[in-house]
Automatic annotation (TrEMBL):
Pfam families: DUF411. The lineage of its organism: Bacteria, Pseudomonadati, Pseudomonadota, Betaproteobacteria, Burkholderiales. This is Metal-binding protein. SUPFAM superfamilies: Thioredoxin-like (SSF52833).
Length: 145
C-alpha cells in the first residue's frame, strides 16, 4: 500500500528531471543536419541551434580534432558530439560518463540518423561511432552495419 502512495511522487520526480540540452552548430541550408536535430528531439533531447558559415571554429572550441569532422558539431553536458551520432549512443555516453572529449561519426555515412530519409533510398553503409579520448585518439564506441 505504501508503494502505491509513492507513485505520484515518483511520477512527478521523473517529469521534473530536465532534458539534456544540446548546443548545435550547423550551416543554415544543411538538410541532413535538420533531420539529425529531429532525431535528437524525437529521442527526448532539447536542442538549441546556431547557424554558422563554417563549423571549424565550433569543432575547435569543443575539442574535436579536424580528422573527425562532419557537417555539424554539438555540445551536451560537457561532451562534444560530431556528426550523425545516434541518440542511443549519446544516451549511453551520458549514462557511462567516460573520460573523453566526446563522440564522432566522421563524414556523413548513409543510414546514420539524419542520413536515413527517403532521399537515400533506404540504403545503409556500415559506420562506427567513435569515442574521442582526451588525447584526441579514438576507439570504436559502437559499430553499425
Amino acid at each position: 500500500m505504501v508503494g502505491l502512495a509513492l507513485l505520484p511522487a515518483i511520477a512527478l520526480a521523473q517529469k521534473s528531471e530536465p532534458k539534456p540540452t544540446f548546443q548545435v552548430w550547423k550551416t543554415p541550408g544543411c538538410g541532413c543536419c535538420k533531420d539529425w536535430l529531429s532525431h535528437l528531439r524525437d529521442n527526448g533531447f532539447d536542442v538549441v541551434t546556431h547557424d554558422v558559415e563554417d563549423t571549424v571554429e565550433a569543432r575547435r572550441k569543443t575539442g574535436i580534432p579536424d580528422r573527425y569532422a562532419s557537417c555539424h558539431t554539438a555540445a551536451v553536458q560537457g561532451y562534444a558530439v560530431e556528426g550523425h551520432v545516434p541518440a542511443r549512443e549519446i544516451k549511453r555516453l551520458l549514462r557511462e560518463r567516460p573520460k573523453a572529449i566526446g563522440l564522432a561519426v566522421p563524414s556523413m555515412p548513409i543510414g546514420a540518423p539524419g542520413m536515413d530519409g527517403p532521399a537515400y533510398g533506404n540504403r545503409r553503409m556500415p559506420y562506427n561511432v567513435l569515442l574521442i579520448g582526451l588525447d584526441g585518439t579514438s576507439t570504436v564506441f559502437q559499430a553499425y552495419s
